Amino acid sequence: MRRISALVDHEITWKELPGFKSEYELRFGDDLVATMKLPKMLSSAAVFQCEEGSWTIDRVGLLSSKTVVRAGTSNAELATYTGRTWKGGGTLELTEGRKLELRTSIWKSTFEWCTNAGESLVFMKGRGFLKYYVDVRMNRAALKWPELPWLVALAFYQMIMMRRDSAAHSAVH
Known about the structure:
Blueprint: E1 11-16, E2 22-28, E3 31-38, E4 46-50, E5 53-60, E6 66-71, E7 77-83, E8 90-94, E9 99-104, E10 110-114, E11 120-127, E12 133-138, H1 148-172
Antiparallel strand pairs: 1-2, 1-12, 2-3, 3-4, 4-5, 5-6, 6-7, 7-8, 8-9, 9-10, 10-11, 11-12
């Protein structure tokens, strides 16, 4: 695997793997960079693995507006993401009090992590219909954030959950 932080200023792509499992790979050309799996069909828990480590990402709470990030199999929360239901995007609060904003486009096809000063760290753009791809671009400023690997995973996770929620809503109506 290649380190995510070594690919700043390059485009990398999340790809959905074939089949009916919720499994994804982050690739730089033919090189594997990371994996994300949602092992249980009806669960929102995801396992993210890359050269830099392993994390779990999961929605918590009755209305699932909060998402937590944990290192490996630990129960200790590293960060909590709270989405803005009606406006899109949300706020990530790290345990030491630092915050980032996740900005989304009106159609929710782009996601971008930004600092409070508005500096872009990671930009993602989704494409595809039957098979979903997300192109990722990390800016040099992202290297100041040791959380960079799981920031890439968390934004992608939010995109997956948004698609899943939309499909569930469409199935009901």
